[in-house]
UniProtKB/TrEMBL annotation:
The keyword Transport does not apply. This is Uncharacterized protein. It comes from the Eukaryota. PANTHER family: MATRIX METALLOPROTEINASE, MATRIX METALLOPROTEINASE 1, ISOFORM C-RELATED. Can bind about 5 Ca(2+) ions per subunit. Binds 2 Zn(2+) ions per subunit. SMART domains: HX (SM00120), ZnMc (SM00235). Ca(2+) 5 binds at I220, A266, A312.
Amino acid sequence: MNMPRCGNKDRIGPETKRRKRYALQGSRWRVKQLTYKISKYPTRLTDDEVDKEVQRAFDVWTKYTPLTFTRKKSGDVHIDVRFERGEHGDGDPFDGRGGTLAHAYFPIYGGDAHFDDQEIWTINSYSGTNLFQVAAHEFGHSLGLSHSDVRDSLMAPFYREYKPSFELHQDDIRGIQALYGSKEEESGTPSTTTSAPSRPLDPRVGGDDEFCKSPQIDAIVTTKNGKTYAFKGSKYWELLDVGVASGYPRSISEGWNGVPNDIDAAFTWTNGKTYIFKGSEYWRLNNMDVDSGYPKPISQGFKGIPSDIDAAFVWSGNGKIYFFKGDTYYRFDPAKKPPVSKQYAGGKRKIKMWTGLPESGIDDAIQYTNGYTYFFKGDLYWRFNDKQFKVDDTSDPPYPRSVAKWWFNCDSGQIRTLSLKSGDEDTAPKERGDIPAGSKRDAGRAALREGGENGARKTASSAHTPVLFAISVLVWKRMI
C-alpha cells in the first residue's frame, strides 16, 4: 500500500510546544482578487476537464475567504499552473509516475504550482491520482499554508484516498482565515464560520502615511488577549498578521488611560500582566487597563534595572525577562534574590553577545505570537533564532528588514529609509503590478512525494538550499 506524501519540510512553529493545528508558512498575498492560468495541460485529460477541476480546487479556498480566483488564458498572473515532465526549468525535475507528484511555491516565491504529467491524473475516481484533491492541497501552499499536524486535514503531509464528498477540514479553514479572514468579515455580515483563534483580521490596504515616512517605534507588546500593539510618540497601532488594523493610529491617552506618551519599553509577563516603562517609572496593566496604585518606581518593582531602558521582553529561551539599555543588557529573574545576579548587574553584559544584533543598542524587542523573538532599531528589525542564539541567517530576503514594509504593510512609495549604515538597507523591490520579476528559491517549494509503507521513502530537498532559476517570477510579500 502506498501513501502519497507532500515532501515539503513541515513548518509547525515552536517545535515541541506547539499545539496540534495548522501551520502558516509566513507569507501571504496582499490582494484578494487573484489570477491564474494553466499554461500547460496534461496529456491524459482534456483541457475542459482540467479547467473545471482546477477551478474546483481554487473554490475550496474561496468558500471560506474573501479570495477570488480568475482564470486568464495569457499574460501575467499570480499563480501559473503547469503539467510538466522531468526537468522543466525550475531546478526540481519530476521523476515519472509514482515519485514526485507535484510541487508548489509559497506566495513570497510566486505561488506557481507544477504537476507531474507522467502521473495518472483522474477525476471522480478511486484509481490513479485525484487531480482535484492534489490541486487543492498544492494551492493551499500557493496561498501560504504549510503542513498541518492534524491528520485528517487537507494540508496534512500525507494525502488521503479520493473522497467523493470532500469537505475542507476545520483546521484548514482556521489556517486560511488566519491569513485572509473570513468571507463574512469581508462583507461586513455576522460570521457563522469558524475562524482562527486569534485577533480579528481587518487589515488596511497600506500602512499609516505618517508612520511610513518615519518608521521607528518606541515599544511593541502583545497583551493577554493576544493583540499586538506598537507605540510611537502619542500614538499606537494594533498590528495584525497581515498588516495594520483599520482605524489606526489612535491616541494613547484615549485607548490606554493613564499611560504616558513616548514610552520606553513594554512586555507581558506569564501572569498576563503587561508592564510599560518610561523614565524611572513603570505601569502594570490588565490588557489596556492600568492597575490601581501605578505608576511605581522601577527601583522598587525591578530592583537592579536602570531607568530609561530601551527594550524589555520575556525570552523564550529560558523564560526570563531581559532589559536592554545602550550597548548593555540585564537579565531579571523575579524568582531569585537578587533578581539581577552579579554577572548581569551594572551593565556588565554587552549586547554583542546576541550575535547579529547591532552592538550600539536597540529600540525595542518582542517575543511575537509565532514564537520568534524580534529586535527593532530605527526602521529595521531582526528575527532572532533562540535555539542557535543568533540572528536568523537562513531567510530570504535576509535580516535586517524594513519595519515599515513587513510590519506596517507600507507601500514602497511611502517608505523613507533611515538606515543604520551602508549595506543594511532592506529596499522594497520594484513592482510591476503585483508581480515583480525575479527568481524563485527551493525553500518555497512544496513537493508532493510518494513512498511505500514498507519501502524506502523519497526525501524532500533541503528547505534551506537556494536554487536560482534564470526565468521565473518572484513576489515579495509581507512575511515577518
